[in-house]
Amino acid sequence: MQDGIVARWWRGVDGPGWRNFGIAMLALSFALVLALFSAAVAQSGRVWLAGSSALAALAVAAWVGITIVPRLARRTSLRWIVYQVDYRLTREGIIYLGAVFILVLAAVNTGNNLLFMILACALAGILISGVLSRVVLTGIDLKFEIPEHIFAGQPVLAEMDLRNEKQTWPSFSIRVIGDMKKSVSQILPRPVFFPYIPRLSAARQKVELMFSRRGVYRQDAFGIRTRFPFGFFEKTRQVTSNLEIVVYPAVQPADQFYEVLPLLSGEMASFFRGRGHELHSLRGYLSTDSARFVDWKVSAKSGQLMVREFAREDERRVMLVLDSFSSDSHRQDEAMRGESSARFERAVALAASIAWHFYEINSVLQFRTDKFSTAMAPASEIIYDALREMATTEPGASAPAAFLDELAAEHEIFKIILTSRPQTSIPPALWSSSYFLFMDRL
């Protein structure tokens, strides 16, 4: 076991670097001997020998500085120099510094050598704490993996990976925190603790995240924080981040959606007529009708031939429209704007639930707003594009009125429209091919 540890240690040793370091130490030791020899012979009056020894010592030291020091510098990572570390004095640190201050007063007033020794040890503890914590925070790379699709109100499991790239030292007691500015839209709301990260290794932690609202969330920076080793200071190294995620609206079916769904099914069955299995209506017999569609029981009761018509199931194409128009968005009344915003959020959640329903039944769907439109395609192909647009759309008074006229021109497609416009402003031609959900009633 010991042979294995020694072998692994020896394989990780930087041979050329240590060889250069050893040569430099030997050369500087030789220069020190020459300097001491120069001082000794100078006292005996041999000036020329003393000067030559001093020049030789300087030449050896200059050779080390010119040839070996640059080699060592190239083999040494200097990234820790540019790390920005923020310090915060902890409660334990305040108590410790208070004790040090008392020792200073006692040592100065009494002149007791033992007190001076204890004071030196206490100050050395602060120095050691700073050096070790700096070592713990250096050489740490952070990686945060988040699922691609995230819905508001649903927990997701992310993974945080910390890699220790130091050649020799492990890292202890590290917490990863979100941006220290306490941004509302930050991604990481709670610290993630890593007790130990071995050298040249990585540690991974599962992180459960949940976002209460739809929208775009950004994390501009993470903080790597530690109190190691004594807890006198809390040191935080800031790591820049460009992490950005889009949180889709919640798609859990609400009670209101269950109430709307049968109405939608009925409206769609009334709009599409053809050969299917769902009965659409009964009408009088025409000479072009097939006898197999005659309802003989109804015909016997009515005294004339009646034909059954069925809902056409194979051509159900649906356009889901979210009209972002809001007449209250420019009002100064905060209460009015807040109520309008809440209605719009409910409308977006309902639109997302409807879109997800058509995705689950593998329908052909198109999603439109006044600024965005997907292709008419199977819902599985456009669902996430539609949800991404719903995640970022905002109410406004700039939605053009001609938008509804454009929808009315597409009279062959059944449309589900969520809008806050007055009913009197809706084109009459749009009523026959659409089902309206008015936001002020949600």
Can you characterise this structure?
The protein is α/β, with parallel strands linked by helices and 442 residues long. 22% of the residues are buried. It folds into 4 domains: 14-74; 81-248, Sandwich (Immunoglobulin-like), CATH 2.60.40; 277-312, no CATH class; 317-441, no CATH class. Helix 8 (334-360) packs antiparallel against helix 9. It starts with a helix and ends with a strand. The strands form 4 sheets. Strands 1, 3, 5, 6, 8 and 9 form a 6-stranded mixed beta sheet that branches. The chain has a 5-stranded mixed beta sheet with strand order 14-13-12-15-16, with helices on one face. It has helices at 2-12, 15-43, 47-74, 91-110, 113-137, 255-271, 296-302, 334-360, 379-392, 402-409, 428-431, and strands spanning 85-89, 140-145, 150-151, 156-164, 171-177, 192-197, 201-209, 215-226, 233-248, 274-284, 306-310, 317-322, 364-368, 377-378, 414-419, 434-438.
Break the fold down into its secondary structure elements and pairings.
Layout: H1 2-12, H2 15-43, H3 47-74, E1 85-89, H4 91-110, H5 113-137, E2 140-145, E3 150-151, E4 156-164, E5 171-177, E6 192-197, E7 201-209, E8 215-226, E9 233-248, H6 255-271, E10 274-284, H7 296-302, E11 306-310, E12 317-322, H8 334-360, E13 364-368, E14 377-378, H9 379-392, H10 402-409, E15 414-419, H11 428-431, E16 434-438
Helix pairs in contact: 2-3, 4-5, 8-9
